[in-house]
Structure formats: C-alpha cells, structure tokens
Amino acid sequence: ARTTLVLLSSVTPGDSLRAGIDAWLMKPVRQAQLQDALLTVLRHDLPIRPDPEVKPKNLSGRILLVEDNPVNQKVARSMVTRGHEVAVLTSSDRSETYEEEDHGVRLIRVRGALNPWWKEAPIPVITQSDLEEIVAEVNPDIVHSHDSGFLALQVTRLDNGQRIPRVASCY
Predict the structure, then answer these.
(1) How far apart are CA 168 and CA 100, in angstroms?
(2) Residue 146 half-sphere exposure, CB side, CA atoms within 13 Å?
(3) Which of 31, 76, 91, 99 is 20 to 30 A distant from 68 in Cα terms?
(4) pTM of the predicted model, to two decimals?
(5) What's the CA gap between 141 and 147, in Å, rounded?
(6) Which residues contact 43 (CB under 8 A, 6 or more apart)?
(7) Are the beta carbons of 102 and 122 closer than 8 angstroms?
C-alpha cells in the first residue's frame, strides 16, 4: 500500500503531484485548511467540511508521538486533557530504556548514545524488533513522528500491516 503524503511548505508546490504528494499546503496553515486536507486524503468517506448543525464528536484515541523536543512534548500533555491517551517515544541519555509518567503522558525513553551534533538529543539505540514490541504494546490509533531524526526513521520503516495511520512532520 502506498503512503499518503501531505506537504506543508513555505515554497511553491512545483511538481508536487508528480512527486506523489497527495496534498500540498502553503505555510502558515490554518487549522481548517489542515483538517480539510487530512480529511480529503485520509478519509474519503467523510465530508470535507463538517455540517455546522451537527455537534462535533468528542474524538479521543491513542497517540504515539515520536518526539525528541521537550517543548513539543508539552503539547502532548494538553492532548491528554482533551481525552487522548498519549505515549511519547524519545531517546534518553541513559544506558537502558525506561518509562516514566508526566502529567498523564507516558514517556518511553529509549537508551541513547552521545550525539556529537546535538548533545540534547542522544542517538537512540534500539532494535527494530524492540521498537515493534513498543508500538504493539502502545497499540496506537495514529503514530506522529515529529522532527525526531533517527527514531522517526526507524518508526517509519516499521511494517504497517495493521494499517496504523502515520503522520510525519518537521519544522
């Protein structure tokens, strides 16, 4: 199955359709624009714009956020207050993988090695099978990999036989 791609860019689209980009949005993007694009490319059975007369459902789900930036991890805490179960997968500077809880967010910190380019973001050291085990145990409804280089790449390469939607973003 082909991966659905949505591109947020500050430059013109060029040959984005020929490159396999399903939707292209110019930054800054309004929330409604992003919602329309995602609904269009991911859920063809939903209307592009919800009926204003229908009250929105309280959507909640299990989210696996692959993120190495502590500032963006704060966003995960706000997602918990909206009814989501959030697990953040990130690297640590310890020699073992461990878990902790932060305001309702499950933090899974993968053992890491010193990153010579960016000391605040250790390089994760994890086997593909261990990563698959973590994802299976979290059992997410969606995986969002944001700007977490090495770990995001490993998560992206996971076999997606379960058809878990994935979102990848970067600044």
Answers:
(1) 24
(2) 16
(3) 31
(4) 0.64
(5) 20
(6) none
(7) no
- DSSP assigned state of 2: P
Q: Could you tell me the CA-to-CA distances from 142 to 55, 63, 71, 101, 139 in Å, in that order? A: 23, 5, 21, 20, 9
Which residue, among 123, 68, 106, has the nearest Cα to 90 in the 3D structure?
68
Confidence of residue 2 (pLDDT cuts 50, 70, 90): low
Pair 79, 98: CB distance under 8 Å: no
Q: Which residues pair with 109 in a beta bridge?
A: 90, 98
Tokens for 44, please give them: 């063809």
Among all chains, which residue has been given the structure tokens 């697990």?
87
Q: What is the mean pLDDT of residues 39-58?
A: 56
Q: What is the pLDDT of residues 12-34, one digit of tens each?
A: 666 555 556 777 787 778 888 88
Quote the CA–CA distance of 48 and 26 in Å, as a whole number: 18
Alpha-carbon span 22 to 42, nearest angstrom: 10
Rounded to 5°, angle at Cα 22 from 154 and 161? 40
Residues 136 and 159 sit within 8 Å (Cβ to Cβ): no
Residues 130-169 as b or e (16 or more Cβ within 10 Å = b): ebeebbeebebeebbbbebbbbbebbeebeeeeeeebebe
149-156 vs 128-138: helix crossing angle, rounded to 10 = 80
